[in-house]
Structure formats: C-alpha cells, structure tokens
C-alpha cells in the first residue's frame, strides 16, 4: 500500500511516496485501512527534529487516523473486521504512522468512530480532543458554573476546549486574534470571545470577572499566553497548558495565588507504552458526546490528499488555517455514516 | 498586656516592647492568652518588607499561636473560655499578631490544642503543618505506596511533610544537608535521607527509584531545589512547592513528563478573608494524628522569651536552627496537658 515517508528529521527532507509492505497485526493490534488523517503541530516538530520522538525509518508520520478495521489481532476484544474506528494511534517512537493507506496500531488506542461523523471529520479529532479532555476533565476537573478561559478558542485544541468546558457546565471565555475567529468561538459556545491584540489581561479580568480572575485557564498556544495565564487565573485557581516546553515563566503570580500549573502531553501513553487504554476510553466517551451534539470538529476548507501531506504541513505552519487540516487518504473519507456494521 | 512591635518593615527597625490595650473579641472572634508562638520564614520576609502582607501599625507580627481562650465572641460555637487552642491565626494584613501576651483572632482559624502537647510544642506546628497538609493531602493527594521525595526533611515544613506522607502510607525519601539532619529524618520516618551536597539528582533517581523518578516531589526549600524537583519527578507525577516566588524554572521537563506543579501559600485564607474554616478543620484532624502518635513537632533547643523575638529572628536567619524556633510567652508554655478542661 502507498505511504509517505521522510528520509530525515531535518525539516528539509520532503515527504516521498513509497510502497509500504502490508504488516499483519500482532496479538493486541489492529490493521486499519486508513480513510483520513490530520495534521498537528507535533508532526511539524517531529519533522523538524525539534521533538525527538519520531518513528524510526521508514519514518511514516501521522498521529490521527480514522478508517476501517482490516484485520484484528488474536487477543483483541471489542473490535471486528469492517468496523470504523478513530484514534491518535501512531506516528511517534516505534509506532506506525497514519500518512499511509494502511497502518497497524495497538487496539487500546482506538475507539469506534462516531456514526454521525465521516472519517475525515473523525480524523480531525483524536489528538486535540484527548489533549483537551486530559486538560479539562482529568487535570482541571472543571466544575459546573466555573469560569473557564481558553486561549486560542478557534485553534485545534482550543475549539474542542471551548466545547468541552461548555458541555461540562462552565461559563467559557476565549481569546482569539481576529473577528472571524471570534465568530467561530461564539458558534462553538463561548460566552465571550476576547481579541487579545486589542485588550490587556488586566482589562478583561476587570471587565469580565470583576477583577477576580478565572477559575481555570487553559492555554493552548504557549509563549506570552502562558505568562498571561498566570495573570488571568484567580486565587486558588488552576492553569493547564499544552505548551510548557521552552517556557520559563516567573512563578511569583502562581505563588501569591496559591495556584496550580498542569502541563499536558497527550503522547505519554504512546511514548512510554503505558496506560494505552486511556486513549480508547476517552475517545469512547467523546464519541457519545459527539453523537449527542455537544462537540463537533472544526475543519479547514482546503482539501489535501495523501501525496499532498507536505503542502498540508506548510499550510499548518503558515498559521492561516481555521480549524484542523485533514488529509483525505481513502475513497470513503467523506462517507457518513461509515460503515454501519454494528 | 505586653506585646512586641516594629516601627517599619525595613529589616532594620528593632522589635520593641509596648503596652498593648486589651481588645475584646468581635462576634466571630476569640481572645487568647498567648502561651507560645514560633518563628517562620514569612515573618522574616514581612519584617524585611519582602512580603507586602504585614499587619498595619502597631505592626505586631507572629502567625503561630498556642494558648488559653480568655473570651469568646457571641457568634462563636465550639470554644469556651479556659480551653487551650492552637492556630496560625494572625500577624498578617489586618490581623493581630502572636508576639503578644494576648491576641484576638477569628475563631475559625484555630482548633483545640492536642492534649499530649505543651503549648510550646503546639505553637511550633500550625503554619508548617497546614502548609504540608495542603501540599500533600489537598494538592498532591498522596496515595499509599507512592514514592514521595521531600526536599528539606529536617526543616520546618519538611519535618511535618516527612511524617505526614509516611502516615498517608507513602514511601518517603528526603534530601538533607548534613548527617545530623539525616539522623533526624530517619527518626521522623524517612526510608532514605539523601545528602544533596554529595549526590546528584540523576544519581539518586537511578539508585533509589531505578531511574523512574518520584510520584510526588515536595519542595520546601525552593531555589535550585525547585529545578531539581522537575528532574526528580516521574512521568505523570506531581510537584508541590512552597517557594515559587522569584523562581523561573524551565518548564520543559514538566512538559515532557506530563506533570503538575502546585504552589502552596497557606496564608490565602487570612489574606483574602475566605475559607477561614479550612485552617480550623485541618488543625482538628492534625490534632487527632498527633494524639495517635503519627506526627510530632521538631523544636530547636534554644529558648526565647517574648522580648527575645528579635534574637529568634536572627537565629532563624542564620540557618543554624534544627526544627522550629519557639517563643515562650506565657508562664504555662511548658505545661502538658494544658488545661484539661473538656
């Protein structure tokens, strides 16, 4: 089957198509006919050599996958050939990537695809949704009626963060960089979308929270937004960031506020081969919320095929995309529902 | 009644004795005949003007108190005149301090003194014990069988941290700076006391945890120990520090480990006048653990009276003390039990 590989992690080597031999699943694995994948910042970092967690040669990247099960390992329970699944299941250390027509992965990393989504919609979700879930559900434990601030509410992780916090009963404010993104954030359920280029943290803390600050701040962007998160959180509050690497914020504000900082890296189960079923469990619960209408993916309008993965990476790097960038790989990427087996 | 005051928060003004008029307790307050107080680093910082949280003139410092209730406000429940109490109840913004023969404080901040302790022993505990409690019980939520590393296990907060983590079923390792302090840490229940001057973090992580790191790291010292905490914690682990102000650690290790950093400031209820009953509840449960023998105070051998509070501050600043420095204020500071009213 066709797949895309890199000859090196140097940011220069292009993605090249090659004929990848079909591997059969091991006892705890499934083989998937890949219908769609999507692009995440970590894929770019791996390609550039900035995140030393890439898979070995032939270096097939791609974490997110949605597709149809082609074969099931002998110890796997709960999945059958022909069923549609989605997951963040490969593309890092020792694991087959999804920029490929066929991939083999650990069955515990995937879950049944929500029937109401096409594969291209489902492939947009796993990495960003698991990240937001770990941040807001497992770490911050957002409570009903709390005020939650999401930095980057129209972004990949952010757009799920806004919807998830809202679905948990929180009052969600978000920072964005344009009117267009503000409109998207409101559509996703934000009560307030703040243009951070036009308003200082102190101003919106005063105006929106009476100077008290937010119970939870979820930083999906990093850099100056992490420092701003320390300002924006209230006394006894919680901050979760997905972008701690390279940052060295002054912890003084955390100290004076008796506050907490969580740094989430959702790749941990794949990198350390531990708690793999965590991903499958989160995606199963996420699927229920998708079916009930509380969460939907935000997907950029541009379309990319398997051989366009390099262009898709460039597009993500440009910062011009709105929502997730999906790679259509199979012929059924657009089909919904797919396939109605169960 | 006699009390000690400062004319300024400049680090130079001496403590001066003065005759402080007796105040009667407000509806939610109690008046306490102070038998003993103790010295904490925050008192030094307030005196130096480094922590802008000192009480207004006449600037009577002293957070920790143990003594006998002299009068009870009309709305106070659960306390009677003559009962012995202990607490971290004043010496900051808007609150009367304990370097005084009599103080008035909010009744929710204190609890009944453990009968098995004298007032001088009880006065050593509140600030450090509430800090350790918030760090290990409320924040880290230490679980039985977890490996906990306490930086500074023979120090004020650290010696309670070692005992509390041990009482929660954890395996407790601690870093100390001398053989003498190592012996103390073993006596307090540490399974391993590591001299951080003789061993690198990587070495003790390898030797003591097989390279895995600690489930929980409790940093009671700050500075380089905070950076070391980020190294010493395991994947998915939790760090709690009491000394975040002024630190700007690189968060990269937190990110790669999907880890958490909590910064604890136990003064919050007193500074913001919120959740005051948190302190009373913690001290009530602490008292039960003291009576059952799981926790005991570590008190330096040198004795100081009320007029020696300046010398006590100097002694704390010297770093030569072993355990808490107590100020004996009343005639019954040494009595045990005191008084057996209930």
Automatic annotation (TrEMBL), chains A, B:
Protein transport in keyword set: no
Keywords: Cytoplasm, NADP, RNA-binding
Cell compartments where the protein resides: Cytoplasm
Classification via Gene3D superfamilies: Medium-chain alcohol dehydrogenases, catalytic domain, NAD(P)-binding Rossmann-like Domain
Enoyl reductase (ER) domain: residues covered: 11-327
Gene Ontology CC annotations of this record: cytoplasm
GO MF term set: oxidoreductase activity; RNA binding; zinc ion binding
Pfam families given in the database record: ADH_N (PF08240), ADH_zinc_N_2 (PF13602)
Coiled coil regions, renumbered to chain: none
Keyword Transmembrane on entry: no
SMART domains found in the cross-reference section: PKS_ER
Quaternary structure and partners: Homotetramer.
Name this polypeptide is given: Quinone oxidoreductase
Origin species: Aquisalinus flavus
């Amino acid at each position: 089957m066709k797949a895309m590989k890199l000859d090196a992690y140097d940011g220069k080597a292009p993605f090249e198509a090659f004929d990848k031999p079909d591997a059969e699943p091991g006892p705890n694995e499934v083989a998937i006919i890949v219908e769609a994948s999507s692009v995440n910042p970590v894929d770019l970092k791996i390609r550039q050599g900035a995140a030393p967690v890439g898979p070995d040669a032939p270096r097939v990247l791609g974490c997110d996958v949605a597709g149809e099960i082609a074969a099931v390992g002998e110890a796997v329970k709960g999945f059958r050939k022909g069923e549609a699944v989605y997951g963040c299941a490969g593309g890092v250390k020792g694991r087959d990537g999804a920029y490929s027509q066929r991939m083999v992965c650990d069955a515990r990393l995937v879950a049944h695809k929500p029937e109401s989504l096409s594969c291209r919609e489902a492939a947009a979700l796993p990495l960003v949704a698991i990240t937001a879930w770990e941040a807001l559900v497992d770490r911050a434990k957002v409570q009903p009626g709390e005020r939650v601030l999401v930095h980057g509410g129209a972004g990949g992780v952010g757009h799920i963060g806004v919807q998830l916090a809202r679905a948990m009963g929180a009052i969600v404010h978000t920072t964005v960089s344009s009117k267009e993104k503000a409109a998207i954030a409101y559509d996703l359920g934000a009560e307030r979308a703040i243009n951070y280029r036009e308003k200082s943290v102190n101003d919106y803390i005063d105006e929106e929270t009476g100077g008290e600050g937010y119970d939870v701040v979820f930083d999906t962007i990093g850099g100056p937004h992490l420092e701003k998160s320390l300002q924006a959180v209230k006394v006894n509050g919680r901050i979760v960031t997905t972008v701690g690497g390279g940052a060295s914020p002054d912890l003084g504000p955390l100290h004076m506020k008796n506050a907490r900082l969580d740094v989430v890296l959702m790749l941990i189960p794949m990198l350390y081969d531990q708690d793999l079923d965590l991903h499958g469990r989160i995606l199963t619960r996420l699927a229920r919320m998708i079916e009930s209408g509380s969460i939907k993916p935000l997907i950029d309008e541009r379309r990319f095929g398997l051989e366009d993965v390099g262009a898709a990476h460039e597009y993500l790097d440009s910062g011009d995309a709105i929502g997730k960038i999906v790679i259509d790989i199979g012929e059924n990427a657009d089909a919904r529902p797919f396939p109605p087996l169960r």
